[in-house]
Prior knowledge:
Blueprint: E1 2-6, H1 14-25, E2 32-37, H2 47-55, E3 59-63, H3 70-82, H4 84-87, E4 101-104, H5 109-122, E5 126-128, H6 138-147
Parallel strand pairs: 1-2, 1-4, 2-3, 4-5
Amino acid sequence: MNLLVIANPLPATGGNYRARKSLLEYPRYGIKPYLIVPSSIQTYRSSDALLELTAKGVEILEVLENKAKGARRHIRNLVQFILPQFVFKVSPKVYKYEVDAVLGFHEVWEVLWLSYAIAEKLEKPSIVVLQLPPFYKKSRLKAIKRAI
């Protein structure tokens, strides 16, 4: 099975850790993972983490970047919900790979959109792993609002 995975496997959070561990396990079960690292959740670059994945059989197709700064970043953040097809783009080479499904590992909008759009174009099923709970305790919700 060939699986196109959109995930951030770089060390930073529990979700990234779970994505990385999953990517490392897939080849052991006959699954060939192809990876796209999204820009919206990229905390920092870790060439060691990417080298480890490559050495263990993960093919990295693309590391997306968001180079927008200041006002352009705010505009991009607004436009992404209205016209995501113009904000979230992958290189055409991604569509040349023969995959059986597309898997997104995070619940951020970029991953959700890319999982859907790529799967739609490839006419393959898409799956998204929602790692955070859909409902929060009041204290957690307050902390999230403060962070925003």
